[in-house]
Amino acid sequence: MTLPAGWTARRPTLDDLPAILALVHASDVAAVGHPDFSADDVREALAGSPYVSPERDSLLAYAPDGSLAGWAYLENENGGDRDFLEVYTHPRTGLPAQAPLLAMTLARVAERVGELGLTTMTVRAGAIPTEKPYIAALRDAGFEFVKRYARMRRSLDGVPAAAPAPPDGVSIRTVDPADDADLRLFHGILDAAFRDTPDYQPRAYERWREWVDGQGSVAWDEWLVASVDGTPAGILQSSDQSLDDNEGWVKMLAVARPHRRRGVGEALLRRAFALYAAKGRAKVGLGVDLANPTEAARLYYAVGMTPAYEADIFERTVTTP
Predict the structure, then answer these.
(1) Of the candidates 40, 39, 45, 3, which has an alpha carbon nearest to the alpha carbon of residue 22?
(2) Rounded to a whole number, what is the distance in angstroms from the first to the last CA of the chain?
(3) pLDDT digits (tens, 9 = 90+) for 211-230
(4) Other C-beta atoms within 10 Å of 106: how many?
(5) Other CB atoms closer than 10 Å to residue 253's CB: what's the count?
């Protein structure tokens, strides 16, 4: 499938960041009522990673009048056999580019299958339930519904800069980014805690460090380690991805199985909320898999978070041409 007559496509560069951000914000407002993508999110996508590159894995589509009307790109954080595909189109002008961008990006996934020495690749895509044309395009392209995620949020109004004391026996500290052993500990807790979730794709420490080192900025004072009676038990990893919206973002929260239901997760969240509030953030957000067997959503409701919106995840497999 190709773009309609009069349309053009090219690979993006960092110079396209403002135009791409405006496009994505228009798409966000149409889908969820407000912008939900930051300049740092665009910058990270355009910078690529060890496993995807904008020169090959990202595409811009221009309408006949020369306006940017669509953007598609791939994400793959760990170099594994699952890509995540994103397609953004302008709500007024971009619909003709939606299915072609999806098809062209899937063709690129098929190329990647061979390049990575695989036989098949899983590819996922997300859609807001109200995005009916995009969901129809995904289904026409062979995608099937997998699960639903919630984008949760709460206001930090009135949250003090000093966190409440954690439960007895629980202590919380910040990670030491200069200490490789401490970062290995952090990664080890995260990796072990997520092993009992069906969608988790393990990432070796070295690959995880490549990903961390590739981030534009890391607020290390927001990366937390919790211990129970002196034993490392949980971590919280923040991200700067929502700073444009003055929002603290909890990227990862993990508690080792033997230490769950001890208040560790809540204590980590309360400490993070206090850190964000001390920096003047207006709110805090995170994403949660509503099918997560650890029932993480229940904890987030308990600390005052509510869904800002929900998104459906679709999946299909791709083989070499």
Answers:
(1) 39
(2) 14
(3) 888 776 789 999 999 999 99
(4) 22
(5) 25
Mean of all residue pLDDT scores within the chain: 92
The arithmetic mean of pLDDT across residues 97-103, rounded, is 97
DSSP label of 274: H
Name every residue whose Cβ is closer than 8 Å to that of residue 79 and which is 6 or more positions away in sequence: 50, 51, 116, 207
Identity at 6, one-letter amino acid code: G
d(CA 110, CA 188): 33
**Contact indicator for 87, 70 with CB cutoff of 8 Å:** yes
Name the nearest CA neighbour of 51 among 70, 77, 89: 77
Q: Return the structure tokens found at 163.
A: 């966190």
Determine the length of the chain.
Answer: 321
pTM: 0.84
DSSP bridge pairs for 88: 71
Token duo for residue 63: 């309408």
Q: How far is CA 49 from CA 129, 250, 263, in A?
A: 29, 21, 36
Q: Is residue 293's pLDDT more than 70?
A: no
Q: How far apart, in whole angstroms, are the C-alpha atoms of residue 8 and residue 4?
A: 9
Neighbouring residues of 71: CB distance < 8 A, sequence distance ≥ 6:
12, 20, 23, 24, 58, 59, 60, 61, 86, 87, 88, 89, 101
Is residue 243 over pLDDT 70? no
E strands, 194-246, in order: 224-228, 231-239
